[in-house]
């Protein structure tokens, strides 16, 4: 009995050591996995590049939802080496939390070499969703470029502020209005004529209902049995007989 108890205690101790080793190995694997995760470092701007912007449609940065917005980006190379501009992108942001994206616009590809001590201008157009609520939004526009040999990539923020989207308030075009009224009037007249024509044709095709008169009374008396009597003689015949 004592031998069995000693054997049981030894088995329990061996199992405890095995579980402890497994937990340590799992913790080591998790630490190794976390250590192997590498974060992509965001691209930084070149110290030899300066950017500027212009909204040619509105200096107040007020735009109509659903209409194209044009953004002119100035790219100035102040260094001694050329830069190759590759693309431009923009995003519409929630103004109270710039981590929330409302819309990501299509990246526009570019392939322009900007020489030292020169400035190049790029046009970027984007379309805000027409169903967006008229209000203020954040807008971020980035320009991507690299050095002349393509060994180092850069990105510079061309615009990082707010814009205001408003509803369309276009004046009514009277010529267009009367044109639509005329079209509607002609369509209504044609429809009325067609309706009358169809109604006339359907009336002709209708059969008149038969009217049953039943047994009718007549004022004509059957006088066959009076033939040859005085009742059937004419007034002239009666006068000649009296004479």
Protein model, in words:
By secondary structure, the protein is an alpha+beta fold. It has a domain at 49-166: Immunoglobulins (Immunoglobulin-like, Sandwich). The protein contains three helices and nine strands. It has helices spanning 2-36, 174-205, 235-242, and strands spanning 49-54, 62-64, 69-77, 83-94, 97-104, 108-114, 118-126, 136-147, 153-166. The strands form two sheets. Strands 2, 4, 5, 6, 8 and 9 form a six-stranded mixed beta sheet that branches. A three-stranded antiparallel beta sheet has the order 1-3-7, with no helix packed on it. The longest helix has 35 residues, at 2-36. It is rod-shaped and about 150 Å long.
In short:
With 243 residues, the protein is α+β, with helices and mostly antiparallel strands.
The helix/strand class is alpha+beta
Count of helix runs:
3
Ends apart, CA distance between termini: 176 Å
Please report the total strand number as a whole number: 9
What's the pLDDT, averaged over the residues? 77
Q: Approximately how much beta-strand content do the residues carry?
A: 25-35%
Name the CATH superfamily classification of the domain at 49-166.
Immunoglobulins
Amount of helix: 25-40%
Radius of gyration: 51 Å
CATH top level of the domain at 49-166 is Mainly Beta
Fill in the CATH topology of the domain at 49-166.
Immunoglobulin-like
Largest sheet: 6 strands, mixed
What is the succession of H and E elements?
A: HEEEEEEEEEHH
Poorly predicted regions:
4-9, 17-22, 25-38
CATH architecture of the domain at 49-166: Sandwich
Shape estimate: rod-shaped
Give the oligomeric state: single chain
């Amino acid at each position: 009995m004592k031998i069995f108890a000693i054997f049981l205690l030894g088995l329990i101790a061996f199992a405890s050591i095995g579980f402890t080793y497994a937990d340590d190995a799992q913790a080591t694997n998790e630490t190794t996995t976390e250590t192997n995760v590498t974060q992509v470092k965001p691209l930084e701007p070149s110290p030899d590049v300066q950017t500027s912007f212009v909204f040619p449609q509105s200096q107040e940065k007020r735009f109509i939802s659903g209409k194209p917005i044009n953004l002119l980006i100035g790219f100035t190379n102040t260094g001694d080496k050329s830069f190759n501009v590759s693309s431009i992108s923009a995003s519409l942001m929630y103004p109270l939390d710039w981590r929330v994206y409302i819309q990501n616009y299509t990246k526009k590809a570019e392939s322009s070499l900007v020489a030292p001590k020169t400035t190049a201008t790029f046009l970027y157009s984007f379309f805000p969703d027409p169903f967006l609520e008229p209000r203020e939004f954040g807008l971020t526009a980035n320009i991507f470029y690299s050095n002349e040999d393509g060994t180092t990539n850069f990105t510079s923020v061309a615009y990082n502020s707010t814009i205001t989207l408003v509803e369309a308030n276009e004046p009514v075009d009277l010529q267009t209005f009367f044109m639509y009224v005329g079209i509607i009037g002609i369509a209504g007249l044609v429809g009325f004529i067609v309706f009358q024509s169809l109604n006339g044709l359907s009336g002709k095709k209708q059969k008149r209902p038969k009217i049953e008169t039943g047994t009718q009374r007549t004022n004509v008396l059957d006088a066959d049995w009076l033939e040859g009597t005085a009742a059937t003689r004419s007034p002239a015949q009666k006068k000649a007989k009296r004479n």
